[in-house]
Design a protein that fits this description.
83% helix, mainly alpha, elongated, Ferritin, single chain
Length: 164
């Protein structure tokens, strides 16, 4: 990497890897969730994630490059943590609360990544890519808010876990 454009491309490739890993993990998380609302949240985010992958591919097409070549080790680690939760022998509400925590760590990682590449795109004058990246960033933020709502007020999952 020699300049901001190189870093931008590197970070986009990292996010592309992260999103593709997440495409494999979200169905497992949905299956492991016990509450219908949490299952739905994971299923909905799976569909959004497919769109995120498509947006990154669109950006790479405009750049005249391929999106592959990087492996997001951070997402790999976050997914491994989620897989260990799935294997836990815990009450359903406790497992759901743990799945939410794992999913929120993923969302926060993605929010940081998309915020960074959106800013790089703006700095590099790629307004079309910045708009696509902002759209994904907004969806990641909404997913995080939904998970938080399920844990606390709307779904009461944390409260149920406390009583388990």
């Amino acid at each position: 990497m020699e300049n901001l454009r190189d870093l931008y491309i590197h970070e986009l490739k990292d996010l592309y890897s992260a999103e593709n890993q997440l495409l494999k993990a979200l169905p497992k998380m949905a299956e492991a969730a016990s509450t219908p609302e949490l299952k739905d949240a994971f299923t909905t985010h799976l569909e959004q994630t497919r769109g995120h992958v498509g947006r990154i591919e669109q950006i790479f097409e405009e750049l005249g490059r391929g999106p592959g070549g990087e492996k997001c080790e951070a997402m790999e680690g976050l997914i491994k943590e989620g897989e260990s939760i799935i294997k836990e022998n815990a009450p359903a509400a406790v497992k759901d609360a743990a799945l939410i925590a794992a999913a929120q760590r993923v969302e926060h990682y993605e929010i940081a990544g998309y915020g960074t590449v959106r800013t790089y795109a703006q700095q590099l004058g790629d307004d079309a890519a910045a708009k696509l990246l902002q759209q994904t960033l907004d969806e990641e933020g909404e997913a995080d808010k939904l998970l938080n709502n399920l844990a606390l007020s709307g779904g009461h999952i944390n409260e149920m876990a406390q009583s388990a």
